[in-house]
Amino acid sequence: MRDRLRTLLIRSAFLFLLSLVLVAGFWFHREFYQIGFANLLIIGGVVTFLVIWAARLALSGELPRGRPRGELAFSVEEGDRLLKDLARLVVRPAEGTSVPGVGYTVRAKYETGPEFGRLLIEDARRAYVADLTEEDARQAGFRSAAELRNAGNARWGWRPSDIVTIMRVHPLGVGR
Predict the structure, then answer these.
(1) For residue 100, is the peptide bond before it cis, meaning its omega torsion is within 30 degrees of 0?
(2) Domain assignment of residue 7, given as a range
């Protein structure tokens, strides 16, 4: 919760500073008429481009965290559960899954290719498939642990003795 509040405050402060720059631009705008129309177009165009670019970075989640450090592929059903905020956990096989550390941002992509958002990895732990709880299943968007195990078995061939990585994620916004 504290990290979410800090991120919100940083983004809000950044956007407030951008608004101050835009207001100051209006005041300086009257001075631009003295330097000519071509200079007004060039300088005003560059400044406007930079303001829009900075706002895009702030709203896409790349500021203050930076660019994503990896990606996770999801089925259409899993992606929809994340987009509708029905799931907060992502369960993946521990072997063959490269997961950036906790606190990093990853791209969320459908298995068919397109990116549908950015996710912040808030927590990660490992457990045996047999040790998945009903609460884990509900937070992953399933009705029961048996349903989660069946879905994992169908997709990755999970056995009760396999180890999985359970990641708590927070959606940061829609990707490009």
Answers:
(1) no
(2) 2-60
Mean pLDDT of the chain: 82
CATH of the domain at 128: 3.10.400.10
Look at residue 66 and tell me if it is in a domain: no
Given a cut of 60, whether residue 12 has pLDDT beyond it is yes
Name the domain boundary from 60, 89, 104.
60
Q: 57: pLDDT confidence band, cut at 50, 70 and 90?
A: confident
Question: Do residues 79 and 162 share a domain?
Answer: yes
Query: In 3D, which of 166, 175, 168, 176 has the Cα closest to residue 3?
Result: 168
The residue ranking higher by pLDDT, 134 or 49, is 134
CA dist 65 and 6 (Å) reads 12
